[in-house]
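Per reviewer request, we include the raw input and output of the structure prediction for the construct analysed in the revised manuscript.
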Amino acid sequence: MIVHDEGEIDWSKGALSATGVGLMPRDEPNRARTYLKARGYARLDALANLLMLIDRVQIDARYTGADYMAQSEEIRATVSGFLRGAMVTDERKIYIEGQEAVQVTVSIPMHGQRGLSNALLKPPAAAPLTPEPEPKLPRLEILRPNLSISDAPPQVEGNYTGLIIDARGLNVQPAMAPRILKADGTPIYGVGNYSPDLIVEQGLAAYYKDLDAARRDSRAGSNPLILRPIGVYRRAVATTDVVLSDADAARLLEENKRTGFLDKLRVVFILD
């Protein structure tokens, strides 16, 4: 979970939540009406905070929610529609310097038909921005030795149910559209590899801080394949994409042929 001033982004559960506060009017004699007015103010405040929180969501290595909404009226309109359907997950009376107020927390899912990914990952929103100039320095940063593929094809070892990418120590950030790359930069997992509808419904990955929590996620299943990246794909905005060795990439693709866990988007990342 990442906590901002505006609210929280829970990358494990795939949800955004924000809280707002509304003071109870002192000049309203009807107590019920006073409470309802304060609750309405609090909900509007929470929705405003939720909109600012969406700006902070990392879409991929290049763009955030703010980038998408700044350049597309269609995306802004779609996001506004999702906000109107935000669910109230907590409501309580509080006191601020002795004055009664109502505090409301609202939440929206990151995935599913009423999720944020429907606005930010589905075409034509998938690539609305003008590509930025390529940097002079290479972006692929290989931090560990690259194990090459042997002449023999990779041996299929087991009926793996999912993939856990242990990216601890690589300063990787969670994102809605992470990628897994080969050592030459070729993507083997990401938005372009699978059905946009499936990505919107399930999301590409879940994120955790430790192996035990990652194993408990249903994406990993009972027998996950666990791999350590050898590097990352660095960008000025964020580092969201990881690089596998040639040997691990070949092994991953060969194992996926047997059980299709990548095709089902059964991927979990472990981050610092």
